[in-house]
Design brief:
The chain is mainly alpha-helical. The chain has 4 helices and 2 strands. A two-stranded antiparallel sheet has the order 1-2.
Length: 115
């Protein structure tokens, strides 16, 4: 019997940076892209992706362009369209790995992770 539903409205339970990093490095493993560059890219990706999800007048092409702007600001080569498409596929596959359901298991708020 379902006793509780937990919504993660601020992404504290679901780490979005891990699938982003895994997906990007799996399709575009440039040694110069690390640390603060990955952090900058993720911040832009998250911000733009949230705007696309909120049905603003943006598409994933806007996200692609903005990520390339960040790479250019760091004086790094930009993503090719084929790499971007491979990244999108890989990101969705990586993100699905992190979805889970918690089941309430008693009077004390303990939860178990199930896939």
């Amino acid at each position: 019997m379902l006793k509780a539903i937990v919504f993660d409205l601020d992404d504290t339970l679901y780490d979005q940076q891990r699938p982003f990093r895994q997906a990007l490095l799996s399709v575009w493993n440039d040694p110069a892209v690390s640390g603060h560059v990955l952090t900058d890219l993720f911040k832009v990706f998250k911000h733009m992706n949230d705007r696309v999800a909120n049905l603003e007048t943006l598409t994933m092409n806007h996200v692609f362009d903005r990520l390339n702007d960040v790479l250019s600001q760091h004086e790094l080569p930009t993503l090719a369209n084929s790499v971007w498409l491979a990244f999108c596929d890989r990101y969705h596959a990586e993100a699905k790995k992190d979805y889970f359901i918690f089941r309430y298991s008693g009077p004390i708020a303990t939860f178990e992770k199930s896939l």
